[in-house]
Amino acid sequence: MRHLKWNPQPVADDTAFPGVEIVAEQGREPGGFDMRWFLGLVRRQAKLILATVFIVCSITALVLFQLTPIYSGSALIIVDPRQQSILDPEAQMALAPSDQGRVESEVEILRAPSVFLKVIRELELYNDPEFGPSPGWRDRLMATLGFQAAEPTPDEVLKQTLEALQKATSISRVGITYLIEVTVRSKDPDKAAHIANALAAAYVAEQVNSKTAMVLGIQQALLSRLTEASAALRASEQKLDQFIVDHVDSVADDASRENLSSLRNIIATRTAETSRLSNVLAASQASLDQRDWDSLVEEINSNQLRTLVEQRNEIASALTPGLDEAKAVDLRASLQALDAQLETAAKDAISGVRTTLDQSQKEADDLRQQLRDSVIGSELPNDVLVKLYEIQQEAAVGRQVYQDLLNRSKVIESQKNVQVPDSRIVSEAYPPTQPSFPKKRISLLIAGVMSLGLGLGIAFLRENFVGGFVTEVQAEEVLGVPVVSSLPRLPGGAGPLDVVDRANELVEHPLSAYSEAVRRTRLALELGGRRPGLDADPKTIMVTSTIPGEGKTQTTVSIARSFAIAGRRTLLIDCDLRRPSVHKALGLDLTRGVSDFLGGGDDTVPESILVTDEVTGLSVILGARGARSTTDFLFEQRRFGDLISWARANFDCIILDSSPVLPVVDPRILLRYADAVVVVIRWAATPQREVGAAISDLKRVNARNVKISAVLNATVGGGGYGGSGYYAYGNYHDGAG
To answer: Of 204, 470, 663, 698, which has the fewest Cβ atoms less than 10 A away?
Structure first.
């Protein structure tokens, strides 16, 4: 063994823990968006994205073609905000509102159940298989179990049909116009258009019926009020006439008073005659209605009627039970003929009584008016004049009220049958040629866009949270650190012999793909591992991993042996004091190691723990026997710094096999002694999120801007740049080409 000089030196101050700003590595800034990174993501995950788009679009297309097409028929109704009136055109202009509430009100009226129920009954939609009641899941379940479901009542049938029709109908205002669109959806295009037109027509008809009902209500109220006004008018007129009759004696002129008294007596006689005739007319009409001819003759003194009644009575008395049938038939015919003559004569007589009554009533009214004018024109006491004036005014007001009500009643009567709707159908619904649902082109386009977004999201999750790294480009773009090489997977198990065989791959098969990858790693560390501002090659290289089981120790041994084979004076130090395994890879016995040196006295020198790899001449300082306590304090001692200083003075390259970053704090301390860091990443296995966290942890304590790079380990197939299968050229050395 070569004699090495042990001269402990203090560790430089710049190896202390950092308190300075971290300098980001080359690559994508954390939290930022890089178009190149995004395009790289799309390129790497193109198969996954395309598969997602294909699957989603295929499912969408399958569903679309399985759906039953629905057709929509639409009718347009225009609402005139003016109240339409044929008899009063000027009034409809004055009623035009200034707001839009009228149209919104008509929309809600059109949505009312009454309009739908009218259409349901008119078209008998309760018998339609699409809108009529259908068995629900409970009924189907009961039928499956052998139970008979109860038949729905007529009200339930109507209710279910109403709900189905309302669900299939949409009624809305078109923008801010006066147009209302009525749309009905159905599996049958003809049915959709027919129901839409029926709804529009029912709404217009309902509007006319509503206006007619309103007019009838007004007319009924006017008739009731007119009856009251007529009674009040008669009472006021009678009161005036009675007042005049009672105050005839108050006339100052004697001659006039005598004339007025005589006129009053005549009026009384006429009034009595009118009353008698009125009673005769009422009794006669009642006798005629009852065919009581004897009473009728007593009421109306008519010789013709008396003769006919006597003849009828004679014939009626001749109809005895034992009379010959032929003679009885003749008598009955004569009796019927006499009844007809009696009815005609009675009607003529009653008509004559009515004429006489009307004439008597007119003469009495004329006499009353004459008496009224004469009394009013005579000289009367002041108190009588005042009272007379009051009664006259009361009668005049009653006449005016009665006349106004009568005129209004005639106007309403004329409007009852000439009502027109305020809305009209401007465009009937026609059977559509294309279904309104599903819209296949739009749905497929939306599905394509959404599936593309879903594919990108899944690709992002797969690349950043779920899967491991599969290419160097992917790892570089995601982590922001260079990947110096990809080491192919070596066969073998976890046994001691397999571990040694894999570590000897570089020696036993120097032309294999794995050996080429290791040499590529060494060359990258020599040429690309210099710190900015320094010309010297990195002397101390720390090799670590994110978590255990990534092949870190095997990679470390291979890199160290590659440096040794290249003629570099190389020292490999096993700094994984928790789980030392360098001795297993080299096939050495673990006797003394780093922990013995760090825990020894000042007389302990590094040569005492130094061993040599007989295969490559690599100098090795083994670890300890698996410490069960914390080990970070050992690396913080000055004695470890003296060891590194001694190694720098006596070797060209020092390789530190560190423990994993996430579970152990030791790599963060060892970083102060390193000139370059290599993070071993197991291909397609180590979660990307954890690798990113490990590198971020190293960057936080990277005060001296040490170059951090990565190595993909145990790759299968095209694990290099872009998946090109770079290391397949290793077959060339085996004579394959």
So the answer is: 663
Backbone angles phi, psi at 157, to 5 degrees: -60, -45
CA–chain centroid gap for 531, Å, is 59
Q: What is the total residue count of the chain?
A: 737
pLDDT over 70 at 27, yes or no: no
Which structure tokens are listed for 394?
């009361």
Amino acid at 190: D
Strands across the sheet containing 483-488: 483-488, 707-715, 676-682, 540-545, 653-657, 570-574, 619-621, 610-612
Gap between the Cα atoms of 369 and 371, Å rounded: 5
Q: Please give the structure tokens belonging to residue 51.
A: 């598969």
Helix (H, G, I), strand (E, B) or coil at 181: strand
* Element spanning 550, H or E: none
Q: Which residues pair with 183 in a beta bridge?
A: 74, 170
Alpha-carbon gap, residue 51 to 284, rounded angstroms: 105
The pTM assigned to this predicted structure is 0.52
The CA-atom distances, in angstroms, between 10 and each of 19, 233, 342 are: 21, 133, 156
Q: Give the tens place of pLDDT for each residue, 117-144.
A: 999 999 999 899 999 887 666 666 666 6
Rounded-to-integer distance, Cα 299 and Cα 374, Å = 37
With H, G, I as helix, E, B as strand and everything else as coil, classify residue 58: helix
**Nearest 5 degrees, angle CA 188-CA 193-CA 198?**
125
The two counts, helices (H) then strands (E), for the chain are: 25, 12
Starting from the edge strand earliest in sequence, which strands make up the sheet with 71-79, in order? 169-173, 179-186, 71-79, 423-427
Q: What angle do CA 104, 105, 109 make, to 5 degrees?
A: 120
Tell me the C-alpha distance between 643 and 400, whole Å. Answer: 130
Extended beta strands in 262-415, E state: none
Give the integer Cα–Cα distance in Å for 508 and 702: 37
- Asked if the bond preceding 606 is cis, omega within 30° of 0, the reply is no
The whole-number average pLDDT for the span 17-24 is: 33
- Amino acid in position 650: N
Rounded-to-integer distance, Cα 394 and Cα 283, Å? 35
Over its C-alpha atoms, the chain yields an Rg (Å, rounded) of: 60
Per the CB < 8 A criterion, the answer to whether 341 and 308 are in contact is yes
For residue 141, the tally of other CB atoms under 10 A from its CB is 12
Which residue in 669, 607, 620 sits closest to 641, CA to CA?
669
Element (H, E) at 714: strand 707-715
CA distance 601 to 336: 159
Mean pLDDT for the chain overall:
81
CATH class of domain segment(s) 481-734: alpha beta
pLDDT tens-place string over residues 150-205: 677 888 889 999 999 999 999 999 988 899 999 999 999 999 999 999 999 999 99
Quote the strand ranges of 152-258, DSSP E. Answer: 169-173, 179-186
Residue with tokens 């009623």: 95
**Which residues are paired to 72 by β-bridges?**
185
- Whether the Cβ atoms of residue 512 and residue 505 lie closer than 8 Å to each other: yes
Rounded Cα–Cα distance for residues 562 and 503 (Å): 11
User: Which tokens go with 117?
Assistant: 């129920």
What is the predicted pLDDT for the residue at 250? 64
Amino acid at 720: G
CA angle 682, 683, 684 (to 5 degrees): 115
Report the C-alpha gap between 261 and 710 in whole angstroms.
141
User: Mind listing the pLDDT tens digit for each residue in 587-633?
Assistant: 888 888 888 888 776 667 788 899 999 999 999 999 876 556 677 78
CB-count exposure of residue 334 (10 Å: 0-12, 13-18, 19+): middle
Instruction: Report pLDDT digits (tens) over 70-105.
Output: 999 999 999 987 765 554 555 454 444 445 688 888
b or e along 485-522 (b: 16 or more beta carbons within 10 Å of the residue's beta carbon)?
A: bbbbbbeeeeeeeebbbbbbbbeeeeebbbbbbbbbbb
